[in-house]
Amino acid sequence: MTKALVVAAFLVAARAWAGDIVVQAIQGDVSVRHGVTEVWTKVAVGDVLRPDDTMKTGRKGSAVIAVPASQAGSAAARRVVLPSEVIVDMSDVRDLSQEELMLKLTMEKVRSSSYQWKSDELQIPSADVVHGADRSSTQVLTMSDPSTGVLQINGARVLYNNGFFATCALKGMEVFRLYPPLAKEFRNRLLVAEALEKAHLRGEALNEYSAIARLDGITPDQQTLVHNRMETLRK
Amino acid sequence: MPLSRSVVLLILAGMAGSTACAQAIFAPRASALGAYAALVQDVRGFTANPAGLTGMKDWDLYTTTYTTTGPGGGGFVFSGFGIGKRFFDNHALALQYSPGTTLDVVQRASFRIAGLSLATNRQISYIEPLAAAYAVRVTDRLAFGVQGRMQTEKITDPQYAIQQVTDSLNAIVPLQQQYSRDTWFGDIAVSWKPAENVSLSALGRGLVRSTSRGIPSKFDTLALTYTRAFELAAGWSPAPPVLLSLQASTAKRGALGAEWNPVADLSVRCGFYADGGLPPFIDAVGFGLGYRYLFFEADASYVRFTNQSVRGGTVASASFDPSLIKDLGMNPFTGNRASVSLRAMLGNIREAPVRIEGVEMLGSVYPSAFQAMAYRPVGRVRVRNTSRRPVSARASIYVDRLMDRPSQSQPVSVQPGESVDIPLTAVFNDRVKDVPAVTIREATVTVSSASEDAYDEHAQARVLIHGRNDWDGTPEGLRYFVTPDDPDVIRSARAIMLAGKDSLARVPAELGQLRRAKLLCDAFTGGLVYVKDPRHLTEFVQYSPETLRSRTGDCTDLTVCFSSLLNSIGISTAFVDVVPPRMPEKAHMYLLFDTGVSPAYGDHVSSNPKRYIMRKSRSGRETIWIPLETTAITHGFDRAWTDGAQEYFDSVELGLGLASGWVRIVDVY
């Protein structure tokens, strides 16, 4: 049995060295979602994950993955522990350079504003107001369940704890857009602000701290903490 | 022959003497500058460089008068006139009549007989009364000219005969012996403008000569010597108000000139003449003024010689050497001279301050996007302000049959001497959409100053017009194939909606767009056959009605058609254009459409956020957009969505393509 485990560990290490993300250990409920599919499947030790896969741990689950240096963007392969109740995109388990992070943040703006038509190109006018909204349906749509967002914020915290500050900040921002209630929680916002600070994006971090200071229900201690951070960043 | 009153030069030799009159340098502008050959642009002083005549606009008339100052000077004398005409754009003719261009010499002599002193003054006249020239412009910068100059030499030799009146009476009867001969000279000139502010010219003088007989050989010592000469000249304008010129001849003569325009229409000139043959080296200095008002121009000049010793009207006979006379207008016996002239430009002489330096078409015209050509330049024309004042220039382009009238650009301010590019935008008519295949059309580009109706200059340019189904390969260009308001598209989309109205009624309003898009996609792709471009051209794109009718098409046709259908029911779309770095041959395009669902409701669209994109629509509201891989659309909505999402995630999220610029999202409607 011991011999088999050693062989398995060797194989896992070899794959990690070769450039694959490999599941080294699991405990409890651990599942993976491949690519853009919507289905979660059970994961086993030795499974190879792709950068577009997502991993989720249940209430009593945990996992250890080996991330090759090429994927993590670091000098050596990394070993990442996923505690219970997290969702982590494998594409986020990587060190982004400051330039890449800036590009990603820019991308958010580019994606939002789309292609800017040049002034000398034809602008096809469209109506500013469109009448005729469909009010026939009586069904009411509920907002997305924030529990999934909580798992993702937990995943962002795992990224932070493992030094992947840039992807932590980006993930946090994405979660806030998908689950607006989570953006009102001091703890979550502080995570993103600290990640930006650690990623050496002072301006963005200051903006985030400034936004936190304006949150409803923030306590005096939290207010003080935020102001201290802002003062430190301004120096 | 009466002597000119203005110049008197006595040539004394013991008891006998000679008188000579040297006539004017014909054009005051030329005499003020000295170095004028490279600056000839009209009929004034064209004999300096006949190739410059191509600078005339239409008719050019010119007359001048002069007076000689100093000893022997007098009033103003008519010098001559010139007339020139430009025709067929590139040709010019000119004629100059200059009776004032003469040199008269009187050799005084007398003898005494029977106590009577009888004068035997011999009079020699050198005249250059006529010149005619033809010039042709070969290119905008190169012109050639030829001219013929006529010189006449006349000798009046008084003689006396003793005539027996009666047997005892003899009478001394004066006999006037007159001799005359004409010589025609042929000159060839070339002008070249290597740059807008530089002009060069070369002139061969006396290359051809034809002399009539008529003067006995005993007068050979009085004949002018004829030698061929070559002249080179250059003009340079370092800045619009300043003009410098230089000239040199194998006859050992040269000059340096400068012209300055302190204000528009006023010119101040000066020049220095050099003679390498006789001292002093700088033998004359010229000054001048010029003023222009509308189509009239007045010039004045004064030329003063540095050595006045033989210019006082009288010289010793031994000092008079005809071989020193190389130019009737400028020789050692010419006196200081003030000249005045008037020039008139007639006919089609409207100022054309704007000139075309070049026309460049920036690409070809795609009928699908012909409306955009009204805003996006199809080309540009480089114009130059050749006048001395700022002008507002505009350009227009016209393609016969495909445009109803020339499309004019906005006026552009151009400073004197400045060149600017004016963009050309073209408003095509609907006929351009009927062009079946690539064709080349001639476009007429004109430029004019903005205040004028008539154009200053025109040029032809070739425009490549593509066929109606041709696509330029860009997502912006593909956008113009999307026709959501086409009746066929609207009818098809509404028919599908009507068929699926029951299922639509069961979904919440917020998810209505997503449901309608899925319904449309599944119905649209049912029975659709993927067919490659009929002409095997990747840039051939069908319009949506064509795809709906034929039920066939390639991925681009399906993208366009599905986008049209979605737009026609109020769903916004965008193209995702992917051009992988260093692999342009793998460029690809797919579709995004707006579900209208807020990200906060994302779980209702998909539990996996990688399947959708959050982006702001034109209204500024952030909504969820879904990528659709149109090559998979024939396999149904879900497959197209999955493939599109995967592709988007790989290229944009993992590859950072959007931030790096090799992925672009272009809104359609």
Overview of this structure, please?
The complex is a heterodimer of chains A (235) and B (669). Chain A folds into two domains: 11-90, no CATH class; 95-104 and 147-235, Tetratricopeptide repeat domain (Serine Threonine Protein Phosphatase 5, Tetratricopeptide repeat, Alpha Horseshoe). With 235 residues, chain A is α+β, with helices and mostly antiparallel strands. In chain A, a hairpin with a 6-residue loop joins strand 2 (30-33) and strand 3 (40-42). Chain A has helices at 2-18, 69-72, 98-113, 146-161, 165-178, 186-198, 202-213, 220-234; strands at 21-27, 30-33, 40-42, 48-49, 54-57, 62-67, 78-82, 87-89. Chain B contains nine helices and 35 strands. Chain B is mainly beta and 669 residues long. The longest helix of chain B is centred in the C-terminal third of the chain and has 18 residues, at 637-654. Chain B folds into three domains: 9-346, Beta Barrel (Porin); 354-465, Immunoglobulin-like; 475-667, C8orf32 fold, CATH 3.10.620. In chain B, 13% of the residues lie in helices and 44% in strands. Residues 1-24 of chain B have low confidence and may be disordered. Chain B has a 14-stranded antiparallel barrel with strand order 3-4-5-9-10-11-12-13-14-15-16-17-18-20. In chain B, strands 23, 24, 25, 27 and 28 form a five-stranded antiparallel beta sheet that branches. Classes of the chains: A alpha+beta (235), B mainly beta (669).
